[in-house]
Write a structure and sequence with these properties.
Layout: H1 2-25, H2 29-35, E1 38-42, H3 48-59, E2 64-70, H4 72-82, E3 100-105, H5 112-122, E4 128-132, H6 135-177, H7 179-186, H8 192-228, H9 230-235, H10 245-273
Antiparallel strand pairs: 1-3, 1-4, 2-3
């Protein structure tokens, strides 16, 4: 029993870790949202306070994670860092570049809808000369994102399938070991259906504790990994974000499903060992 419980705890931990990582990152959404920016190029001569005001209003939009105003001097410094040796393009004290607003989306809004919402908010602003969103290349990237996320969720489904198969094998072996006791009780008038239902209920209760402990350990592992591994922080994010109300319901559903899965596996193993009528 100790070995079997350790095995299902390990598989439940892996499933919980995978699920929490997907819930936190949205697949590849977090990584893409950290790399992708929408740039609103302002007209030359727009005052810095107006540029900062536009950035503040854009930052309040639901799809936007952050919006920062870059003044013309910052834009010129970034230009020289990207293209060194072109400083001669700037005349005597004149900066040929305008300021711009750099917008980053939230991971959950890394989509056509999120980009369109930002564009529709920026297009009526008279100080904005041009909006850069990636053009046709962005559409290809979003299609690749959807395929990548589907592949990642398929991996989670595979982990759950392996977990279920492992549980059914365990429960069938447990039911086989209980054959003498079941025969003894059945011979004294105890209905087999009652034994099966009580056994299933016990599996659900025990599975709840296993799922809760495994999920707690998975959360702690994500928390520790994000603090010490920059790659995890960039691609998955910080586990503290899971404490928000939006992640509470999916986490509770995962715990419920993990417990019910173990109960159903118990019932399936029982039915495989003790078919109805035998």
């Amino acid at each position: 029993m100790r070995r079997e419980t350790a095995g299902r705890f390990l598989l439940c931990f892996l499933a919980a870790l995978y699920f929490l990582a997907m819930l936190l990152s949205g697949g590849v959404n977090r990584f893409l949202s950290g790399q992708y920016t929408i740039s609103a190029i302002l007209h030359v001569g727009v005052p810095d306070d107006e540029g900062a005001g536009i950035a503040g209003k854009v930052a309040a939009l639901p799809p936007v994670r952050e919006a920062q105003y870059r003044d013309p001097e910052q834009a010129w410094a970034e230009f020289l860092a990207a293209y060194p040796g072109l400083g001669s393009l700037r005349g005597e004290g004149e900066n040929p570049l305008p300021g711009y607003v750099e917008v980053r989306l939230r991971p959950g809004w890394m989509s056509d809808e999120g980009i369109a919402a930002v564009r529709s908010a920026l297009e009526p602003v008279s100080q904005v000369e041009k909006i850069l969103t990636g053009g046709d290349a962005m559409q290809s990237l979003l299609r690749m994102k959807r395929w990548a996320n589907a592949l990642l969720w398929s991996g989670f489904a595979l982990v759950c399938a392996v977990f279920l198969a492992f549980l059914v094998m365990q429960e069938k072996a447990r039911a086989t070991r209980l054959l003498p006791e079941v025969s003894f009780l059945a011979g004294r008038g105890v209905p087999e259906g009652r034994i099966a239902s009580m056994r299933t209920a016990g599996a659900v209760v025990a599975g709840s504790f296993v799922a809760l402990l495994a999920t707690g350990l998975a959360y702690a592992a994500l928390l520790l990994a994000a603090r010490h591994l920059p790659l995890v922080r960039v691609t998955v994010g910080s586990a503290e974000e899971l404490l928000g109300t939006g992640s509470l319901l999916p986490a509770c559903l995962f715990l419920l499903c993990a417990a019910m899965l173990q109960g159903l596996a118990s019932l399936a193993g029982w039915r495989a060992t003790f078919p109805k009528g035998r």
